[in-house]
Amino acid sequence: MVKMKVVGFIGSPRKNGNTDVLVQQVLDGAAEAGADVEKFYINEMNIKGCQGCTYCREVDGCKLKDDMSKVYDALKNADGFVFGSPIYFFQFTSQMRQVIDRCWALVNPDFTPRIEGGKKAIIVAAQGNPEPDAFKGVFDEFTQILQMFGMEVKGTFVDVGHHAPGEVKDNAELMEQAKTAGTQLFA
Length: 187
Fold this sequence. Notes:
Strand content: 15-25%
Largest sheet: 6 strands, mixed
Radius of gyration: 16 Å
Distance between the termini: 15 Å
Order of helices and strands: EHEHHEEHEHEH
């Protein structure tokens, strides 16, 4: 049996923050189910913003040679993903947005994806706002992007009302849901 590979992307600048903790829960569940897991801290990577040069419209790839190549490799080769970002000023962090923008290089000129479909994804977020649906539009928009790449979004898990790093651990129900989602990513 082929081992599945699951990659987590942390769009938070805080290691061990609420987003990181929740992403790790999903990855722990996936590992428990037998997957190989890997995690990228986007804030620690050298990733420049999209230059709008249209190089990727002519060539399968990006003109910029930076750590985004690791992200491209992961998106092409892994079977499942956990995308995590806190909400900063009504949107995903600039770190996560930068990665999303650079994924334009994975789209053909006819808007078909350059990566194989059928991959699984989970979205994880943390927000200080206590209203769970306050940023539903952000998650819906990102879900559409992932679906354009042929990914099946298996769930969205949002920690609400916490501000201090690691406070999500107080929400035992959400922690368990995130871990269970990881164990069932390929179910």
